[in-house]
């Protein structure tokens, strides 16, 4: 029987994977942050996997997760969705990120589409991407203060007004 992408990933990176689950073909691995680059490169460059398409990259803020009843040892999680056009596989990779060290490796050198996704996550959540070629705001204006998708961002916060730039 052929191994699934998740099984291949577990075989190669068993010490770097902290949790996995699969439901109806939807496979997910939670990995240690320091393994992100190696895992992503393995997913892309292994011929029998060939995850050549980064479909999406986003983040989750667990500050008030389940009304504060469930505590996680980290505040954020960066979530990657990869797809193999050749093999019709999908896999989700989650990377826990600590609030004090809100930074993970950039994947821009592996997938060009990561550039804008990483900029959006930086802009909305304040998570930095080490090695990103141009990490600056993409949705909000440069003078905007804070990161609006953080759960502790005050919804009624007044922002500095900027005038015309001409």
Task: Give a written overview of the molecule.
The chain has 166 residues and is an alpha/beta fold. The protein has a single domain, classed as 2-Layer Sandwich (Beta Polymerase, domain 2). It contains three helices and seven strands, in the order H-E-E-H-E-E-E-E-H-E. It has helices at residues 5-12, 36-45, 114-125, and strands at 17-23, 26-31, 53-61, 76-84, 89-97, 103-105, 128-130. The strands form two sheets. Strands 1-2-5-4-3 form a five-stranded mixed beta sheet, with helices on one face. Strands 6-7 form a two-stranded parallel sheet. It is globular, with a radius of gyration of 18 Å. The N and C termini lie far apart (65 Å).
Estimate the helix proportion, in percent: 10-25%
What composes the largest sheet?
Answer: 5 strands, mixed
CATH architecture: 2-Layer Sandwich
Question: Helix and strand succession?
Answer: HEEHEEEEHE
CATH evolutionary superfamily: NADH:ubiquinone oxidoreductase Nqo5 subunit
Number of DSSP strands? 7
Mean pLDDT: 92
Looking at CATH, which topology would you report? Beta Polymerase, domain 2
Hey, roughly how much beta strand do the residues contain?
Answer: 25-35%
Morphology call: globular
The overall number of domains is 1
How does the helix and strand content classify structurally?
alpha/beta
Tell me the radius of gyration. 18 Å
Q: Please count the helical segments.
A: 3
């Amino acid at each position: 029987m052929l191994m699934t992408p998740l099984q291949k990933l577990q075989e190669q990176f068993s010490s770097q994977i902290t949790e996995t689950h699969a439901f109806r073909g939807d496979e997910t691995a939670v990995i240690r942050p320091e393994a992100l680059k190696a895992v992503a490169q393995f997913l892309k460059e292994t011929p029998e996997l060939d995850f050549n398409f980064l479909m999406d990259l986003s983040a989750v803020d667990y500050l008030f997760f389940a009304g504060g009843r469930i505590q996680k040892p980290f505040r954020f999680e960066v979530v990657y969705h990869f797809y193999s056009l050749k093999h019709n596989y999908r896999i989700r990779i989650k990377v826990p990120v600590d609030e004090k060290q809100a930074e993970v490796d950039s994947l821009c050198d592996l997938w060009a589409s990561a550039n804008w996704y990483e900029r959006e996550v930086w802009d909305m959540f304040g998570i930095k991407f080490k090695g990103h070629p141009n990490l600056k705001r993409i949705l909000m204006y440069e003078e905007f203060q804070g990161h609006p998708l953080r759960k502790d961002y005050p919804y009624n916060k007044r922002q500095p007004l900027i005038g015309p730039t001409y």
